[in-house]
Design goal:
147 residues, alpha+beta
Length: 147
Amino acid sequence: MTFKSRRDRLFQLMTFGFSAVFIGIVLFQWSESGIENSPSFLSNILLLAIVGFLLWSHFDTTYELTKTELKYKSGILRGTIQIKDISEIIKGKTLWSGFKAATARHGVIVKYNQYDEIYISPKTNDTFVAKLLELNTEIAITTHSNS
């Protein structure tokens, strides 16, 4: 079963805001000195690549549950977690640092193996967790209040 990522206004503002600023910088530099003559041609290409990665992550973030695996992809970030290795799910909490394949706050933190965790943001946390519990009833569920 495939789950799309929820997108909230903060992440949209960050994605499109940074993209607009970076594109503005590149267009300004190119209008001043031309594309080929720009002294910072490589940095302009790097900025455009960052914009590409931001937009790719924004529009192509999904999660898939198979009988044995949780597969995630968010732009260039892709991976697989064995469902049998998942020990805990924390619903409704935002992970501000660490490994994130998410485009919204108040998502799901998946703890697996001994010390590993990933933050994801499925469209509906409850549906995602219910489906995960069908596949592994041993997973502990913690609900974080947003107050």
